[in-house]
């Protein structure tokens, strides 16, 4: 029997572990000056109020209508409350202001705003209300990595498609129904592990819950969906508001990989060395693939940068890259070489690919105008050691880039897009176009090249490829569009 090992999980990108709970409007106050929400026990607040205020607050809460939620927000804004503070962005404060100040006569608009102002809470200990990492969440990620190792070792590839072809299924809708009915995912796991339920070797992997080492800080962010390929059409799906564990947080736990005893029927035993090698291989590959994707859409990944030097020295030896939690991506939760990911297509039947077509990213604002201040979810470093071993000390939470409030011009938006279309090859005359109320632009053709000349207030040109070109008040800028294709535009700028 192998000895238990101690684990320390170092968070290096925004991490949210769902717990099916949200922050109720009666349980938090938005402090607009501090840019924080203050979470409190409603009973503690009621006890602190005067009889008159208590009756007033209780009557608002008792209404149970959408109007009453807005009235609760307004009432709490004028109250001094004490509780746990969670950091929010300036964009969140603006968002809250719009909700709080909505006229109560427009029921439809109020409903929409309230539904979108839902803050999902990360998993927490109900006794001290501190975040923690459930052992089941961590074990799920470790299991996927090990299953991928077994698939590669046994040369198991394209399992799903082969099975579907054998059953002569051609329509995507038929495939989907067959997958659900036959529970194909479980079949694949059973084949790889040579057993299921009581004969599953992962029964012998015991992973404890992980508890915070330091003063773990959380933050409210927006989860926004972005297409992995450049497109003039954005990804579908509304934003989400999530409480995340901030970068720099650390959690400790224990893992015990036991040898199965005779008579259990478990055919495969899990060796610690192979187990750790599978973690390293799976998540490193996942990270490399993601980095290629996000660079194309101009996301500056902070994942590698957030690994401190002491941890880097231990990587691939006693510390390994891992990904867990919400929005980790379908690739991190499916077996390599055998992915069959459902991609919805609106009213059309779903299609199935070996990769996801979109990626969820953490943002300070619900509608980011640029991508270079976004961050991927769920990355961490898992450090292993013997029970008495010293781990790398947690680092202070790193502040991510905040959203840029500069106004932007999107070359795919109607004014520019229509101008570009009209100003095709052979155009002789210059055509002035007005963008918004302040910025003027000229789009024209010269020697077979389209050019865009901008003047006006401070701002940026947003290109389809995710490049952002600044200009200052009074400065004239000439942008040369050297190439236009489905992949975007190649631009050259000179003042």
Descriptive overview:
This protein has 495 residues and is α+β, with helices and mostly antiparallel strands. The chain folds into 3 domains: 18-122, no CATH class; 135-385, no CATH class; 408-494, no CATH class. 28% of the residues lie in helices and 27% in strands. It is built from 12 helices and 25 strands. The strands form 6 sheets. Strands 1, 7, 8, 11, 12 and 17 form a 6-stranded antiparallel beta sheet that branches. Helix 2 runs antiparallel to helix 3 (66-77), helix 3 (66-77) crosses helix 5 and helix 6 (135-153) packs across helix 10 (272-296). The longest helix has 25 residues, at 272-296.
Query: What ranges have pLDDT less than 50 throughout 5 or more consecutive residues?
Result: 404-415, 423-451, 454-477, 483-491
Task: Count the E strands.
Answer: 25
- The average pLDDT score comes to 77
Domain count = 3
Our count of helices gives: 12
Q: How much helix is in the residues? A: 25-40%
Report the β-strand fraction as a percent range. Answer: 25-35%
Gross morphology: globular
Please describe the biggest sheet, giving its number of strands, its sense, and whether it closes into a barrel: 6 strands, antiparallel
Radius of gyration: 27 Å
Summarize the structure.
It is built from 12 helices and 25 strands.
Record the SSE blueprint:
Blueprint lengths: L4 E7 L6 E5 L5 E4 L4 E4 L2 H7 L2 H13 L2 H12 L6 E4 L2 H11 L6 H10 L2 E4 L12 H19 L5 H8 L5 H11 L1 H10 L11 E3 L3 E2 L5 E10 L12 E6 L4 E8 L14 H25 L12 H6 L4 E5 L17 E5 L2 E6 L4 E6 L11 E2 L2 E7 L22 E3 L3 H9 L8 E5 L3 E8 L2 E7 L3 E4 L5 E4 L5 E9 L2 E7 L1
């Amino acid at each position: 029997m192998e000895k238990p090992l101690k684990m320390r999980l170092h968070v290096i990108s925004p991490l949210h572990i769902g717990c099916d709970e949200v922050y109720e409007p009666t349980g938090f106050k938005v402090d607009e000056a501090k840019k924080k929400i203050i979470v409190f026990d409603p009973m503690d607040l009621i006890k602190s109020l005067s009889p008159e205020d208590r009756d007033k607050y209780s009557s608002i809460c008792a209404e149970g209508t959408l109007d009453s939620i807005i009235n609760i927000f307004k009432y709490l804004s004028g109250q001094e409350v004490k509780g746990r503070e969670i950091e929010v962005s300036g964009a969140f404060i603006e968002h809250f202001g719009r909700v709080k100040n909505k006229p109560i006569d427009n029921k439809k608009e109020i409903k929409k705003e309230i539904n979108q102002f839902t803050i999902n809470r990360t998993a927490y200990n109900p006794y001290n209300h501190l975040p923690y990492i459930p052992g089941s969440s961590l074990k799920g990620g470790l299991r996927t990595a090990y299953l991928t190792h077994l698939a590669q070792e046994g040369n198991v590839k394209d399992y799903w498609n082969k099975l579907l072809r054998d059953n002569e299924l051609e329509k995507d809708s038929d495939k989907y129904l067959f997958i659900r009915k036959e529970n194909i995912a479980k079949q694949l796991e059973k084949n790889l592990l040579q057993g299921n339920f009581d004969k599953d070797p992962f029964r012998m992997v015991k992973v404890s819950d992980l508890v915070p080492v330091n003063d773990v800080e959380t933050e409210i962010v927006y989860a926004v969906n972005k297409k992995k390929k450049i497109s003039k059409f954005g990804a579908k799906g509304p934003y989400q508001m999530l409480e995340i564990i901030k970068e720099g947080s650390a959690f400790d736990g224990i893992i015990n990989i036991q040898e199965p005893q005779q008579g259990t029927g478990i055919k495969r035993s899990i060796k610690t060395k192979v187990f750790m090698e599978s973690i390293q291989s799976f998540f490193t590959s996942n990270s490399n693939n993601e980095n290629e994707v996000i660079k194309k859409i101009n996301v500056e990944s902070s994942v590698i940068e957030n690994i401190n030097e002491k941890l880097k020295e231990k990587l691939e030896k006693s510390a390994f890259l891992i990904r867990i939690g919400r929005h980790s991506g379908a690739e991190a939760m499916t077996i390599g070489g055998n992915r069959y990911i459902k991609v919805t297509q609106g009213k059309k039947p779903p299609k199935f690919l070996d990769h996801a077509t979109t990626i969820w990213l953490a943002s300070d604002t619900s509608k980011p105008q640029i991508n270079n201040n976004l961050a991927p979810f769920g990355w961490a470093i898992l450090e292993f050691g013997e029970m008495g071993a010293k781990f790398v000390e947690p680092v202070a939470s790193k502040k991510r880039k905040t959203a840029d409030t500069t106004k932007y011009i999107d070359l795919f938006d109607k004014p520019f897009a229509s101008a570009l279309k009209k100003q095709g090859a052979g155009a002789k005359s210059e055509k002035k176009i007005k963008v918004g109320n302040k910025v003027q632009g000229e789009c024209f053709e010269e020697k077979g090249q389209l050019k865009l000349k901008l003047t006006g207030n401070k701002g940026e040109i947003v290109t389809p490829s995710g490049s952002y070109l600044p200009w200052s008040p009074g400065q004239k800028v000439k942008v040369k569009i050297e190439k236009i294709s489905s992949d975007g535009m190649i631009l050259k700028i000179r003042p």
